[in-house]
Specification:
By secondary structure, the chain is α/β, with parallel strands linked by helices. 46% of the residues lie in helices and 15% in strands. It is built from 14 helices and twelve strands. The chain has a six-stranded parallel β-sheet, covered by helices on one side. A six-stranded mixed β-sheet has the order 7-6-8-9-10-12. Helix 13 (277-282) links the parallel strand 9 (270-275) and strand 10. Helix 1 crosses helix 2, helix 1 crosses helix 3 and helix 2 (15-23) crosses helix 3 (30-43). The longest helix is centred in the N-terminal third of the chain and has 17 residues, at 74-90. The protein is elongated and about 75 Å long. The model is unreliable at 52-56 (pLDDT under 50).
């Protein structure tokens, strides 16, 4: 089956240029249009019915693709979704929420039926199987997350690698020399979910750069798992004094577990987290944290899509810098 990328390669232009030349959505030089049409004719390329329909009208609907896989924190995902829906309404667009684990087939089904003008894709993996289709589709898309290879895609997210680094740097400045990352559930790492992998990369890089003893422990999102991880950390790292948490569901149970094991926060153990601000501020021991900017990311992702729908250029990569708020869970580690 001939794809739009095959026509682009044959004509010596980009896939988006082929789309614009065949749909008439943007002005293309007569020479380029003829070359694209000739390549399409020679290769036997036929735009699918959805693309032909889209050439003449808009649906004013965006697709938000967020498969609710195991290990996902649904309340956090819904914060992104609410921001997307609210911003889309400002542009007179509705949002179709796709939560099934359908991968490339699900995206193609939605695209081929011309149900939506554009797609927002979440829960991005480092080697996401949806990438070839997203590059091939003749309608705009934006990914909330960064795959390992993002060329030719439009991506936006918090800079999770920088967030992991910032947490370690903060603990280092306070004099901590033995640190650990309590991360997302194991299945999130098995899928190579991009944001979780970036946090590990940043945490490890900063710990190595500062010559800290460090460890990384995935953790199921249950109080029992938090207790087990706390016990394991103290058994394997008895000199542990600093912990970074990237798992919203176990933040409070983990603090409780450490205190039940005899460590006071922050007198004996400093804790930082990457989590929603409202959660970090509401705990019995308010936690020093880097906020998840779900409202800003969701809004800016929609704005990027709107610009692409209007044929305007947008940056391929938008990384939001992390901002840390210091609270009561971290303290200086006095030399012993």
């Amino acid at each position: 089956m001939v794809k739009i990328t095959d026509v682009a390669r044959h004509a010596g232009v980009s896939a988006s240029t082929v789309s614009y030349a065949l749909s008439g959505k943007r002005p293309i030089s007569e020479e380029t249009r003829r070359r694209v049409e000739e390549s399409a004719r020679l290769l036997g390329y036929r735009p699918h019915a959805g693309a032909r329909a889209l050439a003449g009208r808009r649906t004013n609907v965006l697709a938000l693709v967020v498969p609710l896989r195991a290990g996902i924190n649904v309340p956090v995902v819904m914060q992104f979704a609410v921001s997307v829906v609210t911003t889309a309404r400002r542009y007179d667009h509705d949002v179709l929420l796709l939560t099934q684990e359908e991968g490339e087939d699900g995206l193609r089904r939605v695209a081929d039926t011309a149900l939506v003008d554009a797609l927002l894709v979440m829960d991005v993996q480092l080697h996401d199987p949806r990438l070839p289709l997203l590059r091939d589709l003749d309608r705009p898309s934006v990914m909330i997350g960064f795959p390992a290879e993002s060329d030719g895609l439009t991506c936006i997210d918090l800079d999770f690698r920088a967030a992991g680094e910032a947490c370690v740097e903060h603990l280092t400045r306070l004099g901590h020399r033995v640190v650990a990352l309590v991360g997302s559930p194991p299945e999130v790492y098995v899928r190579q979910t991009a944001f979780a992998q970036r946090v590990v990369q940043g945490f490890t890089a900063a710990a190595d750069r500062n010559r800290l003893a460090s460890a990384v422990h995935p953790c199921e999102a249950t109080p029992a798992a938090a207790r087990t991880v706390a016990e394991q950390l103290l058994r394997e790292q008895p000199a542990l004094t600093g912990v970074v948490v990237h798992n919203e569901s176990i933040l409070e149970p983990l603090i409780d577990a450490f205190e039940q094991l005899g460590l006071r926060v922050p007198a004996d153990l400093s804790i930082t987290a990457i989590c929603p601000d409202e959660l970090a501020a509401s705990l019995r021991v308010p936690v020093t944290s880097i906020a998840l900017p779900s409202a800003e990311v969701g809004a800016r992702a929609v704005e990027l899509l709107m610009r692409k729908l209007d044929g305007k250029d947008v940056p391929e990569a938008t990384l939001l810098p992390p901002g840390m708020t210091e609270r009561a869970s971290t303290a200086r580690r006095e030399p012993t």
